[in-house]
Design a protein that fits this description.
By secondary structure, the protein is an alpha+beta fold. The chain has a single domain, classed as Trna Endonuclease, Chain: A, domain 1 (3-Layer(aba) Sandwich), CATH 3.40.1350. The chain contains 3 helices and 4 strands, in the order αβββαβα. The chain is globular.
């Protein structure tokens, strides 16, 4: 599976749940939808009801986080954001549902 296919699956899931999201778009050469300002930023920002934003970096095969991605991930975590690295659709769903349960547990998702 290529990363764009995984991203498309996850976006379909996010849409089916009615969550708002932002994705980086085309992951290719600068000038074709990929901004230099996005370097290191996670692939997906997902707004979970209850004022919770989570970030997911998608990776497939043996791809690893770049130095910039590690730096951004740590910065976001220091600001109390949840940042996940996911390699499968199932792992993405697990992470999203985990965050949703946390919000419900703490009374943040009052529907």
């Amino acid at each position: 599976m290529i990363e764009n296919d995984l991203q498309a699956q996850v976006i379909e899931y996010i849409k089916s749940r009615g969550f708002k999201y932002r994705h980086k778009g085309y992951r290719g050469k600068p000038g074709r939808g990929h901004s230099k300002n996005d370097d290191g930023w996670p692939d997906l920002e997902i707004l979970i009801p209850g004022a919770k934003t989570i970030f997911i970096e998608l990776k497939v095969d043996n791809n690893t986080l770049s130095e910039m991605q590690i730096e951004i991930k740590l910065e976001l975590q220091m600001m109390s954001f949840s940042v996940y690295e996911c390699r499968t659709f199932e792992k993405c769903v697990e992470c999203i549902e985990h965050e949703e349960r946390k919000n419900t547990y703490y009374g943040l998702n009052n529907g």
